[in-house]
Automatic annotation (TrEMBL):
Record key words, sorted: Manganese, Metal-binding, Mitochondrion, Nitration, Oxidoreductase
Keyword presence, Membrane: no
Domain Manganese/iron superoxide dismutase N-terminal per the UniProt entry, residue ranges: 26-107
Keyword Nucleotide-binding among record annotations: no
Gene Ontology molecular functions: manganese ion binding; superoxide dismutase activity
Described purpose of this protein according to its UniProt entry: Destroys radicals which are normally produced within the cells and which are toxic to biological systems. Destroys superoxide anion radicals which are normally produced within the cells and which are toxic to biological systems.
GN (gene name): Sod2
Protein name per the record: Superoxide dismutase
Similarity annotation: Belongs to the iron/manganese superoxide dismutase family.
Catalytic activity: 2 superoxide + 2 H(+) = H2O2 + O2
Lineage: Eukaryota, Metazoa, Chordata, Craniata, Vertebrata
Enzyme class at the top of the EC tree: oxidoreductase
Cofactor(s) essential for the protein: Mn(2+)
Subunit relationships: Homotetramer.
Amino acid sequence: YFCFFFFSRSSAKFAAPLGCLVSRQKHTLPDLPYDYGALEPHINAEIMQLHHSKHHATYVNNLNVTEEKYKEALAKGDVTTQVSLQPALRFNGGGHINHTIFWTNLSPDGGGEPKGELMEAIKRDFGSFANFKEKLTAVSVGVQGSGWGWLGYNKEQGRLQIAACANQDPLQGTTGLIPLLGIDVWEHAYYLQYKNVRPDYLKAIWNVINWENVSSRYATCKK
């Protein structure tokens, strides 16, 4: 027997077989740290409300349903069903993880440039902040269909890296990079305001990037 953990905030203690799933609290939609209209004019209130209360909420609900089905399959020893549920766990679990990071990466008091250790690391690994910004924007623009552009930390190499993930694939779970800054380039993140012009959305989002949050994530993952 083994205990199945998926993107949860559970403690490191291992419970008896299935115990973690029986006692696990359901995932919940996190509150935004600001009002829906707080990021205007860069991201309008209608987009934020739909994105948070509809799209993210759907990932949370579907993740809970899928985990219940997985728990049942695990209890029955039904490996076929466990395997068949993996895509739904990846998609909805990733959607929950990614958006939970995304909301905190944004702030009405954001924009500008990072300071301190994060800025020094950006200069070291990308040459300059302008070069980093250009590269992350280009990677995000270039995502085919739906997905995310990321700034991540490679713990093994001790350096920052830029990456793109398709759909809702979570950065750490699929690449090993620790997520610092994620840019959602699904159309639901910008279409109501920017139509199909993704580059305009990406130009605007730099005005609300919460560098304090990104710097805090960088400091934490370096420990």
